[in-house]
């Protein structure tokens, strides 16, 4: 019955979770509103706010799970990839907590954890499956052969899908993070009103920087002709941008699943909260007779629940790490 305390602090969310025998009993997430005004995450501010949030987040996670500090068997934490200053706060806390309470440490790769979020709920994919991991920092098609045997078969060559959402919203004058706002406006708009280009990249790799530039020029030219262009058309602009990002993501994902003969398709990361993408994945799976999997919303965006489930599976394998562990801004699978 291992009890795992998990810590996540790779970007701008401070999160703590408790997992008892593979069941995630609490998942506390402290968001950082401070970045809204800057149009993106400010690393220095993020690490400072992590320092303020980490202890209350852990206390709340233990309280919500009705678990006592003395019942914990191991501390799992995100080692990377992410912002170094942010990671340092979580890693240092985990190391200090483990040292003070004589507990083993379990290091977790944030990108693997996004994929392993699928093992939190009731409905779990079967190996091998294909996971589209789409977040603010990453866009990857991952072939998942086992819990910790994953291969990236395609990824973005420049911007991530979430970055494309956030940069578009910045062009439109919306606050950060813009993805949820694009989602909100897109529900009210006509996705076929404006056409944006689909990049022609070989294999299963993605590119979003050309799309961002075409959106920038499109807005600039239209605002020059009509200063109210954005306000007058916000719903249709968001719906059209969202549709293009969704078709770029899913066209490649579908081809990859066919080529690898995959029957279980999954999606993870913050952008998988997007309504259009969720509907698109469902339609794609139903058309092909595949099973599809999307984690519950709280386990899509950055959260310690996914670190806890990854930590649990590492605990079962007996994979622990020493007190000399340091965070990694870049961390391959
Ligand atoms: O996984 P995540 O929480 O953090 C990273 O590891 O990056 O992903 C955050 C990203 C942001 O770019 C945010 O705009 C996007 O996920 N996002 C969305 C939605 N909710 C979050 N994008 C589109 N529609 C949403 N509903
Ligand atoms: Zn993430």
Helix-strand layout with pairing:
Elements: E1 3-8, E2 14-20, E3 23-30, H1 43-65, E4 74-80, H2 84-100, E5 105-109, H3 110-116, E6 129-134, E7 139-146, E8 149-155, H4 161-171, H5 179-186, H6 209-225, H7 229-259, E9 264-268, H8 275-288, E10 291-293, H9 305-317
Bound molecules: 5'-O-[(R)-(carboxyoxy)(hydroxy)phosphoryl]adenosine and zinc ion.
Domain Gcp-like: 24-308
Pfam family, one: TsaD
Family: Belongs to the KAE1 / TsaD family.
Q: What's this entry about, in short?
A:
With 333 residues, the protein is α/β, with parallel strands linked by helices. Keywords: Acyltransferase, Cytoplasm, Iron, Metal-binding, Transferase, tRNA processing.
Structure description:
The protein is an alpha/beta fold and 333 residues long. It folds into two domains: 3-116 and 299-317, ATPase, nucleotide binding domain (Nucleotidyltransferase, domain 5), CATH 3.30.420.40; 124-294, ATPase, nucleotide binding domain (Nucleotidyltransferase, domain 5), CATH 3.30.420.40. It has helices at residues 43-65, 84-100, 110-116, 161-171, 179-186, 209-225, 229-259, 275-288, 305-317, and strands at 3-8, 14-20, 23-30, 74-80, 105-109, 129-134, 139-146, 149-155, 264-268, 291-293. A five-stranded mixed β-sheet has the order 3-2-1-4-5, with helices on both faces. A hairpin with a 2-residue loop joins strand 2 (14-20) and strand 3. Helix 4 (161-171) runs parallel beside helix 6 (209-225) and helix 4 (161-171) runs antiparallel to helix 7. It is globular. Zinc ion is lined by residues 110, 114, 135, 269, 302.
């Amino acid at each position: 019955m291992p009890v795992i305390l998990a810590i996540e602090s790779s970007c701008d969310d401070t999160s703590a979770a408790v997992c008892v025998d593979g069941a995630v009993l609490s998942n506390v997430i402290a968001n950082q509103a401070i970045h809204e005004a800057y149009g993106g995450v400010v690393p220095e501010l993020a690490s400072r706010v992590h320092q303020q949030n980490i202890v209350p987040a852990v206390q709340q996670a233990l309280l919500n799970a009705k678990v006592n500090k003395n019942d914990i068997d191991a501390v799992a934490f995100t080692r990377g990839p992410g912002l170094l200053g942010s990671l340092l706060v979580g890693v240092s806390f985990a190391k200090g907590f483990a040292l003070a309470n004589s507990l083993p440490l379990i290091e977790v790769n944030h990108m693997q954890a996004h994929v392993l979020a699928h093992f939190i709920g009731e409905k779990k994919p079967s190996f091998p499956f294909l996971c589209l991991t789409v977040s603010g920092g990453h866009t990857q098609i991952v072939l998942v052969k086992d819990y910790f045997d994953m291969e990236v078969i395609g990824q973005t060559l420049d911007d991530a899908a979430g970055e494309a959402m956030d940069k578009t919203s910045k062009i439109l004058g919306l606050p950060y993070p813009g993805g949820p706002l694009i989602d909100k406006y897109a529900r009210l708009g006509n996705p076929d009103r404006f056409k944006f280009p689909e990049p022609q990249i070989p294999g299963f790799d993605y590119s979003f920087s050309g799309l961002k530039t075409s959106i920038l020029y499109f807005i600039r030219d239209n605002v020059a002709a009509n200063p109210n262009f954005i306000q007058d058309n916000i719903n249709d602009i968001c719906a059209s941008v969202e549709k293009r990002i969704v078709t770029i993501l899913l066209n490649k994902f579908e081809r990859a699943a066919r080529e690898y003969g995959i029957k279980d398709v999954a999606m993870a990361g913050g952008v998988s909260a997007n309504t259009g993408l969720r509907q698109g994945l469902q339609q794609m799976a139903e058309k092909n007779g595949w099973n599809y999997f999307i984690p519950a919303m709280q386990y899509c965006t950055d959260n310690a629940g996914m670190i806890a489930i990854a930590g649990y599976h590492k605990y079962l394998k007996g994979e622990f790490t020493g007190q000399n562990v340091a965070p990694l801004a870049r961390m391959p699978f």
